[in-house]
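So, could you explain this one?
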Amino acid sequence: MTKNVLFYARSSTTLHLGACFETQLHYAKPFIKEKGWTLEAICRDIDIGEVVFTAQPGARKLLGYIEGGTIDVILCHTLDRLCSRHAVAERLLHELGAKDIEVWAADPGVQIKANDLIEYYYDDQGGLFGRGNYIAPMPDELYEAEHLAPLSYGYRYTGAFNADQQYIFGFTAVDADAAQVVQQIFQLYAEGMSPARIAALLNTAGVTGPRGKPWRDTTIRGDRTQRNGILNDEIYLGRSWVPGHHDFDFVPALQIVAQDLWHRVKQRQHLAARDVAE
């Protein structure tokens, strides 16, 4: 009979201290498939330092599933992603054992038992939380994200695994929530609303602007000649600027604003500029 698995991941906010959520899940899924198990649920937390285990929302959700009696296996990437302290792991394994729930670590691919905890938590640093080699080194995302060029509002950086299972970070992707805001800005302006009123509307609605700052009319209006500001950024048409060149690559996956809506906005800008000139 197949076993129902709950996968738990805790991603670190501190450099060099554990794989990101995507990496942990990447290695968990093939392990579950290899075992013939069924992925029933995923719980996740952000590692914010010393905190009571049950105070973490993901951990509370995990405990709820345990009480529900539908989980046979708790799976983590490495043991430290489940419990950062020996005492917490010891108590958790005791409670899970009483319910016949197993704990497994996808790296190194073994079941975790109470008798093994001393080895995991007090072994030398080279073998800490995992016997043998680490198969998932920290992805570039946690090393170099702060050095990447800022993206236009509506986009985010993401990563992917190549054919050699190396995690490559630095690809641009559409941020779905922010993209809706961009579309709303273009639509409202095309319908006659001023950048100042649009900014006020977004701030009243509690929508965070670029770089986490409040919206301003200049953020939306920008400068047509410099191609900056929300209403003038051609990336929203899917035009990705090629460094060192004076042209663009068209990337359909990055297009947020339809061509006809962009054209309506440009027409209104032209009329507004002509009225000012007159």
In short: The first helix runs from residue 21 to 35.
